[in-house]
Amino acid sequence: MNVTIHGTIMSPWVRRLLACCEEKGVSYDIVNVVPLGEPDPEFLKISPLGKVPVMEVNGKFLPDSLAGCAYIESEVADPPLFPNDSWELGWMYWLCDFLGTGVFSKVEAPLFINKFVNPILLQTDVDEAAIAQAIEEMPRHFDYLEEQLGGGKEFLLGDVISLADLTAGSIFVNFRHAGETVDPNQWPSLSAYVERMHTRPSFARLIEREKKAVGAVSPMFAG
Ligand SMILES: N[C@@H](CCC(=O)N[C@@H](CS)C(=O)NCC(=O)O)C(=O)O
To answer: Which CATH number fits the domain that encloses residue 57?
Structure first.
């Protein structure tokens, strides 16, 4: 199976879909689309919301990473990333939503935009109030993840990896691009978990590609 992924490798949602391909051994090509400014009308034809990623498969286009991951799961069963157990499956969707609506939107996106994209890539204004607000939001979001990982869990659902882990792993790459790290004294389980996720072969390959693309420009790779 081969898919084409339209988007930028720096997007957490593109990266989540790439991580799904990497984990399942699905080969992929990347068409670089950076969703800044007014979307190209041609792109809106395959992505009505103007967002990345779009997954192209057999001449058809799926404009959402969750939809793309669900499609891949259904085509390539091993290793499973969506649990069979009904409760676990529901809980996994909840965790994905918490990570996207909470951790990403409230904490990591404002930091990524205002500590990396705007000052470093675009050299435009930084919203200091947005940074302060994100720092304020961080503890309650990270406390929740720390609690979820309690009792020595390897992954968010326990012993087995799921899409929730790819979502978290991906979002925390952006956190690192913003020059941030999870404080191991305050959140020891979360800090170790992020390290474990980022050293998995799937994420290690994705991070290496990003390093080649942006190099020391990203605070994640500087120094
Ligand atoms: N639910 C979508 C979210 C995708 C998303 O928000 N992508 C951002 C990049 S990180 C984007 O394309 N933003 C451009 C825009 O909103 O115009 C998914 O998982 O694919």
So the answer is: 3.40.30.10
Assign residue 145 the CATH number of its domain.
Answer: 1.20.1050.10
> Which of the listed residues 56, 75, 94 is the one where a domain comes to its end?
75
Which residues sit with their C-beta closer than 6 Å to ligand 1? 11-13, 35, 50-53, 64-66
Q: What is the mean pLDDT of residues 7-26?
A: 98
Query: Whose CA is closest to atom 10 on ligand 1?
Result: 11
Q: Which atom of ligand 1 is found nearest the CA of 68?
A: 20
Side-chain half-sphere exposure of 72, counting CA atoms within 13 A: 33
Centre of ligand 1 from the C-alpha of residue 185, in Å: 32
Residue 143 in domain: yes
The pTM of the full predicted model, rounded to 2 decimals, is 0.97
Residue with tokens 């470093």: 120
User: pLDDT band at 191, cuts 50/70/90?
Assistant: very high
Q: Assess whether 32 and 71 both reside in one domain.
A: yes
- Given its phi and psi angles, is residue 27 left (phi above 0), alpha (psi -120 to 50 degrees) or beta? beta
Q: What is the C-alpha to C-alpha distance for residues 127 and 99, in angstroms, rounded to an integer?
A: 23
The domain tally of the chain equals 2
Query: What is the Å distance from ligand 1's center to 52 Cα?
Result: 5
- CA 39 to ligand 1 centroid distance, Å: 12
